[in-house]
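seq as requested:
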Amino acid sequence: MIATDNQRILSADVGNRLKLWEAESSQVLMSYVGPSELVTLTPDNQFAISGDGNELMKIWFLDNGESVKTINHLEKITCITITKDTQFTITGSEDMSLKIWETKSGKLTQILAGHDEMVTCVAVANHNRHVVSGSSDKLLIVWNLSTGETEKTLEGHQDIVTSVKMTSDGTLAVSGSRDGTLRVWSIQHGVMVTAFYLHVPVLELKMTFNAEHILVRVEEGGCAPLLCLHNSTAAEIESQSQVNIDLKDDSSSSTTSPITVPMNKPPPLEKKSSSIRMPKITRKSTSSVNEPSDKKKHSKNRHQSYSDGNSSPGKAKNKRSGVCKIL
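struct tokens:
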């Protein structure tokens, strides 16, 4: 991992050896022996957090390797994230819960319980108001970081949610799943804004602070799609759009320039859609998608389904969902 000062790099190997390097000279500054999985640096570069692939993780000082605290779950810890101000560390586990810890002291402050299966991924906004978690139960939950209460439940994925990220302002969340889709969500309204159909399981995604560029790691296909999403503010989004992306090579195409997909709201269609081989992209857009009644029954009373956001009063209109580029 590269420290936020861009001057140091922390590496780890399978033999539980960790090294802190000076980036410019490649000189080893410190060597440690300790947990070497899920290695994470705090944004202030004061602490590192790592585990052994079990229910324990260790918080330790980066400069000298001294242990601060050991944090734990009942079962294996699967994901971790740290708030931008380093105040809180959030972990998810196979025990279906998330825990919020004070980073500097290792004190447990809250336990978030709501998923029906293991927690697979977690993200937090820079303003420390919302946490979003994904799970093997195919759901994403938006939590209030201060109260620990569930604010929204985001439904739509048809398989395990494998990765989730949030924009720095906390307005949008982007999630990937083994169902082969990448979905963009409005946190304020709890609705899906855009869905990208990649047709191969999504394992991980990385993105810029405003979601303008999204890099996707997929299970197969020999490529890593780079999406360029120019989106309006989440508060203005009214319509939903869908983009179909074929990752298979097309030898008949000789173009090397990025593919741009306009995603403005189209005129009404009568159940028609276009389909073009790669590198072109099939798109279809619908506004105001109604959820089936049996899906609404699937949500538990303690959750608020994303479909409830469709009926929220005072929602501003939007004439442009965005533009997507594959680089």
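Residues 76 and 248 are 36 Å apart (CA to CA).
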